[in-house]
Design a protein that fits this description.
Elements (H helix, E strand, L loop, with lengths): L1 H18 L6 H24 L12 H29 L4 H27 L1 H7 L9 H26 L2 H25 L1
């Protein structure tokens, strides 16, 4: 009977450990934004490296460049999801931490918008390089799917962040989120 009671106690303790939500801090959110920043820069660089014209599938490593773009996109999606989870777990942010985090996100805006502008501008190249005559098809559809998923995850991250920011920072954050969402809308429209 004592052995049975000990097992019940240990199982209860184990269950309580996993049932208690982990409170995150602004420091964790800042670390997430740093990771997001690195991945956005990597994605922007990969998109810039993709040739706007010319080249061939094998001669200029077009397939490798495309794989890099897709891999960078997938990594960014994962980090955005983790960031959203951490922001939600953090709860309301104080004025100082809120300002630091908002400034870090504002610093990302030019790179995000550049990546979106580049991917939109290079749509003809993606279509040209990957026609039915080449061994890889459906690339523009894959890019569209990646853009739509990134938009959804970016909006979720932005909404979670806006909800946790102090009231005086919400309008600024909302304006920033709307500019980035508009950039996604433009790029997505090009691939639809």
């Amino acid at each position: 009977m004592v052995q049975f009671s000990r097992w019940i106690f240990l199982l209860s303790l184990f269950a309580a450990t996993f049932a208690t939500p982990v409170k995150r801090t602004g420091v964790q959110v800042e670390a997430d934004i740093t990771s997001i920043s690195t991945q956005v820069t990597n994605l922007d660089n990969a998109i810039q490296a993709f040739p706007a014209t010319g080249g061939s599938l094998f001669g200029t490593s077009i397939a490798a460049l495309l794989n890099t773009i897709h891999t960078d996109t997938t990594s960014l999606e994962t980090t955005l999801n983790q960031g959203t989870s951490d922001v939600t777990a953090t709860g309301a942010l104080g004025e100082t931490v809120g300002r630091i985090i908002l400034s870090a996100v504002e610093a990302l805006e030019p790179t995000i918008l550049d990546a979106l502008m580049q991917i939109a501008a290079k749509q003809p190249a993606f279509v040209c390089h990957f026609t039915a005559a080449l061994p890889i098809g459906g690339i523009p559809a894959l890019i569209l799917q990646d853009l739509q998923t990134l938009k959804t995850e970016t909006v979720a991250f932005a909404n979670a962040l806006i909800a946790d920011l102090p009231a005086d920072l919400k309008a600024e954050a909302t304006t920033l989120a709307n500019k980035i969402t508009n950039g996604f809308n433009i790029a997505i429209a090009v691939y639809q």
